[in-house]
Amino acid sequence: MNLLNLIGNTPIVSLQRMCPSGAGEIHAKLECMNPGGSVKDRPA
What we know:
It is an enzyme of class 2 (transferase). This protein is mainly beta.
């Protein structure tokens, strides 16, 4: 199962400056881009 398929249409950004080179990858989900513009719009 692919994690990106589970998050819907909310954009994901790579936070390349958050960890040393070669240490891994950190990605963040832009909750402000939800259809209603709020993190509170997520279904329970």
